[in-house]
Specification:
single chain; 556 residues; alpha/beta; Ubiquitin-like (UB roll); Threonyl-tRNA Synthetase, Chain A, domain 2; Rossmann fold; 3 domains; 5-stranded mixed β-sheet; 5-stranded parallel β-sheet; 15 helices; globular
C-alpha cells in the first residue's frame, strides 16, 4: 500500500489524506478548486512551489493566482519565456532585451537598434498566441553547472554564462520549453497555456508587452504615458552599458577583477553631476519665474531625504539659501488620521496631511511673515512645535520633501510659477541577464528593510508585512502624479544591491518559516545569492546609500 500524507488546504480550510508524491497540480484537481483566473503556483509550508512539484511530507498548502503578488510574478516570468521562444522562432539568435517595467508591462527592444515594424509586431503577437494555445510543457531540470554552461554557449546566451561563471556551484537549474532553454529566477507555470491575456504594441524603437493588472486581471493597460520616466530608464541603461555593467554577471566580474572601487567613484560622481544640473535648473527658474519652492516626491525608500540634502548643498553654491521642510511634520493628530478599508491608519492618504495649515504656512512665508513650523511626534501621534520661527528672505528657497509633493491638491493655493517639481525613484539599472529585469520594488524593499531595522526598531517580518500596503498607497497616491515632475532623478546605484546584501541577509534569516512573509524573505535571499558582496569602504559619506546602511555625514 502506498504511503499517505495529510495535507491542509488553506483555500478550502479542509484537511485531506493523499498519496505521497502527488503533484500540486494533481492535488488542485482533486480538490476541485476553481477560480475566476487560473491557479499559477502554490505555497507549501510558506515556500513558493510550482504546480508540478511533488509532496512527500505533511504540508499546509495555499494555491495562488494572478491576483496575488507572487502569482503575478509567476505570470510575468512565464510570459517572458513565451516571448523569448517567439523571438527565437521568428528571428533565431537575433539579440533582444527585456529592458524594464513600463506601466503594467515591460519594454523590450532588439540589440541592433533597428526600429520594429507593425508587421513584426503582428508576427510576434501571433506566434506568442500560438505558443500559448499549444500548451508547451515548461520543464525545470537540475544539471551540472558545467553542462548548463555548455547549453547556454550553444544558444549564444553569453549573459547567462557570465552569471553562472561568477557564482560557481556544482549544480544549477534550467528551464526548457519545446526547443528553447532559459532561466527566469523564480517559479513558472507548468506549461505555456496558463497565460490568459496579453498584448504587444510598438513603442519607441522597441515594443511594449502589456499585461493584465493584478487587481483586475480581466483588463490590459495599453495606454502608457510615462514619457519622462521612460527617458530616465533609457538614459541609465545607456550609462550602465557604457560602464560595462548591464547585467549581474558583468558586475560580479568587475568585483572579481578588483575594478569596483574606481567604478563606485564614477557612479557617485554621476549622481553628483545630475544633482548639480538639477540645482542649475532650479536657480534658473528662481531668477526667471520667481520660483521659491521645490517639491520633492517619490515612493518609499527612494532616497528623497538625502537627495534633498545634497540638492541643498548645490543650491548654496549658487547663492540660494535652501530650507528643508518635511511633509510628515504636517500629519494630522493620530485620532484624525484617515483609515483604509481594513480599519488601519492610512498614512499614505493625502488627507493624513493638514492641507489647510500647510498652505496657510506657505502663503505667509512667501509673504515674508515669520511662521512657527510643526513637528510631528511619531511616538505619541501628536503635533508639536518648533521653538524658533522661520522667516524667508530673498535668497531663501523651500525644499518640501514628501510622497504627495507632485499631487496638485497639496499646493492648490500656491501659484504655479513659485513651484519646481522633482520626482525621485530608485530605478534599478542593471538586469539579472538580458531577459530578466530586476524589479525596482526589490531594490527599495531592501533599502527600507535595512533602514527600518536600524532606525525604527522594526524587524524584517514587520517590514514585509507592511510592504503590500505601502505599494498600494504608492499606486494610489504617488505614481499617478510622477509625470508632473519638471525633473526626474534616479537614486539607484548599479553597485548598491551587493552592498545591501551584507545588511539584508541576517534580517531575512530572522524571518521564521511559520509566517507568510517567509516566502518573500526566501525569494529575496535566493535573489541576493546571485551577487558578489561589496563592502562599504569606498562609499562616500554623502552617498544615497549611507541613508540606509549608516555612516552618512548628513543628519536625519
Amino acid at each position: 500500500m502506498q504511503d499517505r500524507i495529510k495535507v491542509l488546504c488553506q483555500n478550502t480550510s479542509a484537511e485531506i489524506e493523499v498519496e505521497m508524491g502527488i503533484t500540486l497540480g494533481e492535488l488542485l484537481a482533486r480538490l476541485g478548486i476553481e477560480g475566476q483566473y487560473p491557479i499559477l503556483a502554490a505555497y507549501v509550508n510558506n515556500r513558493l512551489k510550482e504546480l508540478n512539484s511533488r509532496l512527500f511530507k505533511p504540508a499546509v498548502v495555499r494555491f495562488i493566482d494572478i491576483t496575488h503578488f507572487e502569482g503575478y510574478r509567476v505570470y510575468q516570468r512565464t510570459i517572458s519565456f513565451i516571448l523569448h521562444k517567439a523571438v527565437w522562432d521568428i528571428y533565431g539568435d537575433r539579440k533582444f532585451y527585456i529592458r524594464h517595467s513600463l506601466g503594467r508591462g515591460f519594454y523590450c527592444e532588439f540589440g541592433d537598434d533597428k526600429p520594429i515594424t507593425d508587421e513584426e509586431i503582428e508576427a510576434l503577437r501571433k506566434r506568442m498566441q500560438e505558443i500559448i494555445d499549444s500548451r508547451y510543457t515548461i520543464q525545470r531540470s537540475r544539471l551540472l553547472t558545467s553542462e548548463i554552461n555548455g547549453i547556454y554557449e550553444r544558444f549564444g546566451f553569453d549573459d547567462k554564462v557570465a552569471l553562472l561563471n561568477t557564482r560557481p556551484r556544482l549544480y544549477s537549474d534550467i528551464y526548457s520549453m519545446d526547443d528553447i532553454v532559459g532561466y527566469f529566477y523564480g517559479a513558472l507555470t507548468p506549461d505555456s497555456g496558463y497565460i490568459h491575456l496579453f498584448d504587444i504594441r510598438r513603442y519607441y524603437n522597441g515594443f511594449y508587452i502589456a499585461l493584465p493588472t493584478r487587481t483586475d486581471p480581466s483588463k490590459l493597460d495599453m495606454d502608457v504615458h510615462w514619457a519622462k520616466m521612460f527617458d530616465v530608464f533609457r538614459e541609465y541603461h545607456r550609462w550602465v552599458d557604457i560602464m560595462g555593467v548591464p547585467t549581474v554577471g558583468t558586475l560580479n566580474k568587475k568585483v572579481l577583477d578588483g575594478d569596483i572601487s574606481e567604478m563606485i567613484k564614477v557612479a557617485e560622481a554621476f549622481h553628483e553631476k545630475k544633482i548639480a544640473a538639477m540645482a542649475d535648473q532650479i536657480d534658473a527658474a528662481n531668477r526667471e519665474k520667481g520660483t521659491r519652492m521645490v517639491l520633492i516626491s517619490g515612493p518609499s525608500s527612494s532616497g528623497k531625504t538625502t537627495t534633498a540634502k545634497r540638492l541643498g548643498i548645490q543650491l548654496r553654491i549658487l547663492g540660494l539659501d535652501p530650507v528643508l521642510i518635511s511633509l510628515d511634520d504636517y500629519f494630522v493628530n493620530r485620532d484624525k488620521t484617515p483609515k483604509d478599508e481594513n480599519g488601519d491608519y492610512d498614512f499614505e492618504a493625502l488627507e493624513a496631511i493638514d492641507l489647510e495649515l500647510f498652505n496657510d504656512h506657505l502663503r505667509r512665508l512667501f509673504a515674508g511673515e515669520a511662521v512657527v513650523l510643526p513637528r510631528y511626534n511619531f511616538i505619541t501621534g501628536l503635533r508639536e512645535w518648533h521653538e524658533k520661527p522661520l522667516q524667508l528672505d530673498d535668497r531663501s528657497i523651500l525644499l518640501v520633501e514628501g510622497i504627495h509633493g507632485l499631487n496638485p491638491r497639496l499646493t492648490d493655493g500656491v501659484a504655479d510659477n513659485l513651484k519646481f517639481r522633482v520626482y525621485i525613484s530608485a530605478l534599478t539599472s542593471i538586469s539579472m541577464d538580458d531577459l530578466s529585469r530586476i524589479p525596482t520594488t526589490d531594490n527599495r524593499l531592501l533599502r527600507r528593510m535595512i533602514r527600518d531595522f536600524a532606525t525604527r526598531g522594526c524587524d524584517a517580518t514587520a517590514t514585509l508585512q507592511r510592504w503590500a500596503s505601502v505599494r498600494k498607497g504608492e499606486d494610489k497616491h504617488i505614481f499617478p502624479y510622477q509625470e508632473n515632475a519638471d525633473v526626474m532623478f534616479n537614486s539607484s546605484l548599479f553597485y548598491e544591491i551587493p552592498v545591501l546584501k551584507a545588511y539584508a541577509l541576517p534580517l531575512l534569516h530572522s524571518v521564521p518559516d511559520t509566517v507568510e512573509e517567509y516566502a518573500e524573505a526566501r525569494r529575496l535571499f535566493k535573489f541576493l545569492d546571485n551577487f558578489l558582496p561589496i563592502d562599504t569602504n569606498d562609499i562616500p559619506p554623502t552617498s544615497i546609500l549611507r541613508e540606509f546602511v549608516g555612516g552618512s555625514s548628513f543628519k536625519y
